[in-house]
Amino acid sequence: MISILPHKFTNDKGFTLLESVISIMLLSITTLGIYGIIILAQESSLSAKYTTTAANFARMKLEKIMDTEYTKITQSYVQGTIYDANPYDDVSFPASDPDGDYAPSLPSAKWRVEYFYPNAGTDPLVIKLKVFWKEKGANKVEHNIQLSSKLTSGRI
Predict the structure, then answer these.
(1) What is the pTM of this model?
(2) Does residue 138 carry a pLDDT above 80?
(3) Domain boundaries, the chain
C-alpha cells in the first residue's frame, strides 16, 4: 500500500483515544436509554397490577352486596362511608370493613358504596361501588375504579 502521509502518522495497530472515548459515550447513552425504557415498563406493569386488583376487589364487593337481602342493603352499607380495604394500613380494619374482605397488595386502598333509586324510591336500586388507592413511589396520584349495578326487589 502506498501512503502519502509519512510513516510516523499512520497507525494500523489499534484504536485511537478519540475513537475509544466516542464509542464509550455512544454505549453509555444507549444503555441509559434502555434503562429508562425498563423502568417505564416496570411502572406500567405495577400500575396494571393495581388496577386489576382493584377491579377484582370491586367485583367481589359488589357481588357480596348483591347477595345481601334487598331490604338490608341500606342498613348494612352506610351511604357514602369510606371503608378501608387493606388491613396492613389501618389497625381498626376489622371494625371498618363490614364483610372482612381486603385488597391484598393494593396500597392505601379504600372503598365506598353509593346507592339510589333513580325513580323516586321505586325499583331498581342502583348501587355504585368505588375503590380508590394511591400508588407507592414518586407518583402519588390517587387512582380509582367504579362499578355499578341495578338491583330490583323482585330478584330471585
Answers:
(1) 0.65
(2) no
(3) 15-151
